[in-house]
């Protein structure tokens, strides 16, 4: 294992620990899908939420939330996930087309249904890495819907604190061909050493023309804003204490590390994209989103 063992072993699947956060994001995507001004469409999201006993009572439509968009969890935080989904959908599709890339790796894929809902170029392969129990739940729900992926889909059940690079290459990932990588809502749950290993591994397995997007929280903000309405409402309404799930150790400077390895990087706040799309969260006082950054990195061709 890379880094200190966390309480979450993945054995709880989506029913608890970090795995449960995958259901929270799915519920947010379900709500986003049915908004009149939706930024992203995910028709599978609500099926995940309704299939798990722990989340079957959560809202999957704004109309089911008594205070609607004023609710910090199902309003503003869900909007954040909707915006993030849209921005990263666009990043992935633009990257595969611009780089003539046919390999996509979703790190901590959770209940991301992009393999099923985005229009991938022919011959594209989507590798999905997450824990065994999360991927088993996903398989069961999608199987029940007879959902058909729009690209070849290769689930890789493995802990990202283990030697996942070997599992990925054994599953057919080609290090000689360009790739697009995504770590959405993942890195702040990993120990420092596992994040460093992840970034080093993406660098090692990526040829010129490859791209990576990931989300981080600035270290100074990671455990700040403890009483932010986003954190307190998530804890009180659905029992997820995000602050206790985040790895509390010092964070590596992953964007800086990639830049030093020759990648070109750009770092954005989510609010940059709110302004671009005309909807999404804007800065507030005491804001759990203040330290979130979305990083986009490209490895130049030789
Ligand atoms: C907040 S969810 C995000 C899921 C997905 N990327 C999305 O945005 O919908 C975090 C995911 O990371 C996965 N995860 C966290 N730590 C992990 C680890 N050590 N190994 C594998 N997966 C992990 C969890 O199981 C969960 O599915």
UniProtKB/TrEMBL annotation:
Pfam families the record matches: LCM
S-adenosyl-L-methionine among keywords: yes
UniProt keyword terms in alphabetical order: Methyltransferase, S-adenosyl-L-methionine, Transferase
Enzyme class name: transferase
Domain of life where this protein originates: Bacteria
Gene3D superfamilies: Vaccinia Virus protein VP39
GO BP field: methylation
SUPFAM superfamilies in the record: S-adenosyl-L-methionine-dependent methyltransferases
MF-aspect GO terms: methyltransferase activity
NCBIfam families: mthyl_TIGR00027
Protein's name according to its UniProt entry: S-adenosyl-L-methionine-dependent methyltransferase
Species the sequence originates in: Streptomyces broussonetiae
């Amino acid at each position: 294992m890379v880094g200190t063992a966390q309480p979450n072993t993945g054995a709880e699947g989506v029913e608890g620990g970090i795995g449960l956060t995958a259901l929270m994001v799915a519920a947010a995507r379900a709500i986003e899908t049915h908004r009149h001004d939706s930024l992203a469409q995910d028709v599978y999201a609500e099926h995940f939420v309704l299939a798990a006993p722990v989340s079957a009572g959560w809202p999957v439509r704004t109309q089911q939330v008594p205070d609607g968009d004023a609710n910090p969890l199902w309003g503003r935080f869900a909007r954040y996930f909707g915006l993030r989904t849209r921005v990263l959908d666009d990043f992935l599709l633009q990257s595969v087309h611009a780089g003539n890339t046919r390999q996509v790796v979703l790190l901590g894929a959770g209940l991301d249904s992009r393999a099923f809902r985005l229009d991938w170029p022919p011959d594209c392969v989507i590798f999905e890495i997450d824990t065994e129990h999360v991927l088993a739940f996903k398989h069961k729900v999608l199987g029940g819907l007879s959902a058909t992926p729009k690209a070849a889909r290769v689930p890789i059940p493995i802990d990202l604190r283990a030697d996942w690079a070997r599992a990925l290459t054994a599953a057919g990932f080609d290090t000689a061909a360009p790739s697009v990588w995504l770590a959405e809502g993942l890195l702040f749950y990993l120990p420092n050493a596992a994040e460093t290993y992840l970034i080093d591994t993406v660098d090692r397995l990526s040829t010129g023309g490859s791209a990576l997007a990931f989300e981080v929280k600035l270290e100074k903000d990671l455990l700040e804003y403890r009483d932010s309405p986003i954190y307190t409402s998530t804890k009180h309404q659905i029992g997820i204490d995000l602050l206790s799930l985040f790895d509390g150790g010092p964070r590596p400077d992953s964007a800086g590390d990639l830049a030093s390895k020759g990648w070109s990087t750009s770092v954005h706040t989510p609010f940059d994209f709110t302004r671009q799309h005309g909807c999404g969260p804007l800065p507030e006082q005491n804001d759990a989103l203040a330290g979130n950054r979305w990083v986009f990195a490209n490895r130049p061709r030789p």
